[in-house]
Specification:
Catalytic activity: alpha-D-glucosamine 1-phosphate = D-glucosamine 6-phosphate
EC number: 5.4.2.10
Shape: globular
Keywords: Isomerase, Magnesium, Metal-binding, Phosphoprotein
Cofactor: Mg(2+)
Number of helices: 14
Family: Belongs to the phosphohexose mutase family.
Radius of gyration: 23 Å
Strand order of the largest sheet: 1-5-4-2-3-6
Helix content: 25-40%
Length: about 450
Amino acid sequence: MERRYFGTDGVRGTVGEIPITPEFVLRLGYAAGRVLAGHQTNGRPTILIGKDTRVSGYMLEAALEAGFSAAGVDTMLAGPMPTPAVAYLTRALRLAAGVVISASHNPYQDNGIKFFSADGNKLPDTVEVDIETALGKPLRCVHSEHLGKARRLDDAAGRYIEFCKSTFPNELDLHGMKIVVDCANGAAYHIAPHVFHELGAEVIAIGNQPNGFNINKKCGTTSPDELVRAVRANCSDIGIALDGDADRLQMVDETGRLYNGDELLYVLVKDRLDRGPVGGVVGTLMTNMAIEVALKDLGVLFVRTDVGDRYILAKLREYGWQLGAEGSGHILCLDKHTTGDGIISALQVLAAIRRSGHSLGELIGGIRLFAQHMINVRTSPDYDWQTDVRLKLTREKVEQALDDRGRVLIRESGTEPVLRMMVEAHDVELAVKSAQCLASVVKGVS
């Protein structure tokens, strides 16, 4: 069955438009409740609901709660809570499932619903399909004596703070470090600063005044300029940027230099190699080629998968590996958590800095990322780029010119009739010219 509503990261859209409407979310809660109740082997199922700081979260939380109640499912309300916190708490409390109301790094006008299974992992595709099927059935209500109840989860933040701290080595601390933490006015605003402070750091928090409308606005991983300025202005040792639901991470060193998920993954791999073997690492089609080359030089296997942490996770499990990431900041350390976690990933980088005695820049070792230039070309519905002989020949010519100094990636957009053509090269001008060459061929036929 083709899924209509579930994407790679749950259900997402603009608030007030299908599927992010009160009516639909009520139906989604009911459908998910019935499916998850069917998987419960004993007792009444309980589902944890967390959310980020968007103003629409109140409305969607109420709709979800009502849907679960009508399905005979109890709920625990955690309030504003990072996505990875919901994954952890669901597993720790032995609940049937967890739900996060968030659109991650998107602006406040958007929102979404994503689910975690009882073991803290994203729902299997088969369960999402079952929920989609249930959405097509009438919304009913169990008898009054079977209605679900809702209650608040006391000290959800405190529980998660302790979990984050437990992933940092006992023999290390952050005393003497001055850290700027940008919470993106999102779900970690009341959590992230405490984690780093309780480990001994002097913390300067920014992006920690959410008002329902300023999530990800000129702050966080999508707009790190303010973090860079704050690190320089406060003569800080490090800067940490999270996104609205705190599952993404970017970092800034003492000079104000920004490091993305690809580079931070390399730091983590080097640190692991100092303490033992690393079976392999998973990146995506967009992972910078400079990192792939650097990992090869370290003797570490590297595998690419489709864009999205869901696919990284699947590939890590397939190979039995622990580390994976994408440049946007999703970093997975499966020996620390079941899902990508910005705070925990930052702690692993800080541990690498502490263990080595080197700065973040020194740990990168002079790696210079390849230039990536992407051009989006709108195409006609009947255009099949994979059978376009001219495009094939042009691509071969470009790849021959790049040799081992770059690569070509052509892929269709999953949301619009656009062909994305990306060229990566050690030289910026070469990347731009090569991408333009490919784009000109498609523009001529679409």
